[in-house]
Amino acid sequence: MRIAFLGGLGIPADGRRGGGIENYMEQVGTRLVRRGHEVTVYCRSFYTRQNGYYKGVRIVRLPTIRSKHLEAFVHTFLSSIHCAFGNYDIIQFHALGPSFFSIIPRLFGKRTVVSVRGLDWRREKWGRFASWFLRKCEYCAVHFPSKTTVVSPVLKDYFQKKYSIPVTYIPNGFTPPVFREPNLIREQFGLSRDEYILFVGRLVPEKGCHLLIEAFKELETEKKLVLVGGASHTESYVEHLKRIADDRVVFVGNAKGPLLEELYTNAYLFVLPSTIEGLSNSLLEAMSYGKCVLTSDIPENKVIVEGHGFTFRTGDKEDLKVKLKRLLQDGSMVKALGRKARLWVEDRFSWETVTELTERFYETVSNCESH
Q: Which listed site, 55, 150, 179, 305, has its alpha carbon 20 to 30 Å from 284?
């Protein structure tokens, strides 16, 4: 089968600006190639530096306008035109905004699918017009493509109830953990095993790091709070986080490879205080490393964490502080829940499982009528 991925920054997912979409395109794309398919990823030219192949995946670089509001829009439009004249069996668009263009290849007889990874119009970084446009793209995501997938049961319920059109649930996956001794993190940041609380994700308002810092500052603990990630058109927000942080808060910046593996391996606890998620890759990664997790109680987090970790009331600093204090005082419970979390995700969220589900979904799209 000949497959194209559109809507992300590109591959390889190197941790500079990429997130869940880039990780998905790399992990699923390379596995589909190993299963005998031909996969092409459309990449933004500033992100992926050369055409050619990456682990068997064909790379097509196209330009765009470097702008918060136009970058994804322009690149996906150009990619859609290019795909419309390409030899593809399935063209997959990622996220709500890019779904607006999924109608273009269909007009040329192509099969298209949209993968919805969250309700992007809720993200605080978007202004009024961008939020309005992204909200309207919900309609595009289920009406323009041949079929639609979502990354969480919560999103599946949302779209099916609102639009009365069936969508398919295919979750995110996690990369098998590589456990490492705390060498790089000790050398670069003075960190040792079990001496810090960890957050991994983009430093944007909806991830809730400001709340986490404020709650952490009121705790009497020698542990540190380590924030891993960078800005996503949110440089002023990152500066705000640094202003409100005390000297126990460590800003690592973007991390990948052995450094990120060390950070996951040696953390005492993982915290995700977000107000918006689809299905968090970093949450799955932390659980795969056997980490106890504490997340906000938004439905997208609860469906993963409930019974295998802790939640606090979303946006409630006092409740977050209480839960953090309890977990800091009970190391044996933290270890036990970490082991339980690892077994839970290993059974359900491996990239091999995600790839198999995706392959079956493509076969269904190829053999049935569109909605």
A: 55
Longest CA–CA separation in the chain, Å: 63
Contact 359, 105 (CB under 8 A): no
Q: How far, in whole angstroms, is CA 348 from its chain's centroid?
A: 17
Instruction: Tell me the DSSP string of 173-205.
Output: -BPPP----SSHHHHHH---TTSEEEEES---G
Rg (alpha carbons) of the chain, rounded to whole number: 20
CA 293, 157, 29, 140 torsion-angle sign? negative
Q: Which residues, in sequence order, are CB contacts of 353 under 8 Å at separation 6+?
A: 173
Q: Provide the token pair at 336.
A: 């036990």
What confidence tens digit (pLDDT) does each residue in 72-104 have? 899 999 999 999 999 999 999 999 999 999 999
Tokens read off for 210: 């400001």
pTM over 0.85: no
Collapsed DSSP state (helix, strand, coil) of residue 55 = coil
Could you give the CA distance from residue 362 to residue 371 in angstroms, rounded to a whole number? 14
- pLDDT beyond 80 at 316: yes
Architecture in CATH for domain 2-173+350-367: 3-Layer(aba) Sandwich (3.40)
Tokens of 69: 């509001």
- One of 1.25.40.10, 3.40.50.2000, 3.30.870.10, 1.10.3720.10 is the CATH number of 184-348, namely 3.40.50.2000
Domain layout of the chain by residue ranges: 2-173+350-367, 184-348
Environment class of 95 (CB within 10 Å of its CB; exposed 0-12, middle 13-18, buried 19+): buried
Q: Do domains 2-173+350-367 and 184-348 have the same CATH topology?
A: yes
Pairing verdict, β 196-200 and 224-228: parallel
